[in-house]
Structures are given as structure tokens and as C-alpha cells.
Amino acid sequence: MSLRSKNLSFPRDLEADSIQADMLSLKHSIIQGIQQLYQTQQLCDVTLVAEGRMFPCHRPVLASVSFYFRRMFASSFKESQEQEIVLKELSHSSLQTLLDYIYTGELVLTSELAEELFTAASRLQVMPALQIISR
Q1: Which of 11, 47, 72, 123 is the most exposed place for a label (fewest CB within 10 A)?
Q2: 6 within some domain
Q3: pLDDT profile of the chain (135 residues), mean per 10
């Protein structure tokens, strides 16, 4: 859909600025909406479990940033339909940190957790987190 109308004549740069502002507004709304859904645990369709701790999540969000979850949820394996997925080799703290990063874009990285977080991000194939941790 074009913002240009036959009846309206906007200067080219004003139209471009308007479109860019609309896109930033949309991106901001999406990010805020995802964060709110995560914080309120609304519309969750899968629960990740690490060390007995449960983390309600959203399949599309996980699949959008993790090749591991994308393959899992898009496959014909039983995990694609499971409501609860146990991640045996991950600590609850590394999973919590990665989920916070996935949903908020903020990665809290401490030297004590760096190696464990690198392993978790590698296993779940969260490439943006891996790049940050590797630096």
C-alpha cells in the first residue's frame, strides 16, 4: 500500500521520512508487544523446562531467532507438538538469560556465566547471542 495518493502531493523527502517513522513505530510496537506477552505470559504455546524450572514461551518468537527451535517446531518429530520441552543439558539460569535476550534484546553477560551461556546459545543456535558472547 502506498502512502502517495493521486490527490495528495507530498515532497519526496517528507514522504520518505513519514514512511521511515511509520516503520520505526511498527517495529517498536512489535518489540513492545512481544516483551509484554513474555512478561505477562499471555498466549504462550510451549513451556521450556531446565532443571525443573518452567519457562512459558511462544513458538514463533523462539523459531524466529533459534535454528534449533525452528527445525524442532517445523518438523514431524513429536517435539513439534509437545506443550512442554525439557532441555536437559541447560541450566535454568542460562536459559533464563537467553530467553530474556530473545524477548527484550538485552543480554546480561557476566564473566561467571559467559562460558555456560556460550554453550547454551550454541546448543539452541541463537546466533545473535553467540556473536555477542564471542566478543
Answers
A1: 11
A2: no
A3: 45 64 79 93 95 97 96 87 93 96 92 92 96 91
